[in-house]
Design a protein that fits this description.
The protein is built from 2 helices and 6 strands. The protein is mostly beta strands. The longest helix has 10 residues. The protein is extended and about 65 Å long.
């Protein structure tokens, strides 16, 4: 069995670019920056930043294009894919993460915990974002697992 799985958590380097394929399917592309800190052989703390190209298709692309913004943290799961094309007689390559799943990251104090899509949508609704979907009213009390019928 072979595994092609990519998991990253970082900040968007630009607003997502959403467009449609000739078939009408939505596609969204953006880049995510991840940081790594380490101590070099001289004992100095070093930081290294990597940039990852991410692409999503279909409904996932619609949601990402609507809610993700430059600078916001995001958790992405997907698979690595390399595509190639020829430009001016030179063969070019790009390796991207094709997103299968994502979660909003912590919003840095802009409206609560922000670690879930519902919290981010709720924070946007409170800020008066036009055309934002209204969330259902959830009960305030905790759910008791014994009350679940299955």
């Amino acid at each position: 069995m072979y595994i092609n799985k990519a998991i990253i958590y970082g900040n968007l380097t630009r607003d997502p670019e959403k467009r449609a394929l000739p078939s009408g399917q939505a596609v969204c592309s953006f880049a995510v920056a991840t940081n790594r800190s380490y101590t070099d052989k001289d004992g100095k703390k070093q930081e290294q930043t990597e940039y990852h190209d991410v692409v999503a298709f279909g409904k996932l692309a619609d949601v990402m294009g609507q809610w993700l913004k430059k600078g916001r943290p995001v958790y992405i799961e997907g698979r690595m894919q390399t595509r190639s094309w020829e430009q001016d007689g030179v063969k070019r390559y790009r390796t991207e993460i094709v997103a299968d799943n994502f979660q909003f990251g912590a919003d840095g104090g802009r409206g609560g915990a922000g670690s879930s899509a519902a919290n981010t949508v709720a924070a946007s609704n409170e800020a008066g974002t036009p055309n934002a979907p209204k969330l259902p009213d959830y009960p305030e009390e905790e759910i008791n697992p014994d009350d679940i019928p299955f």
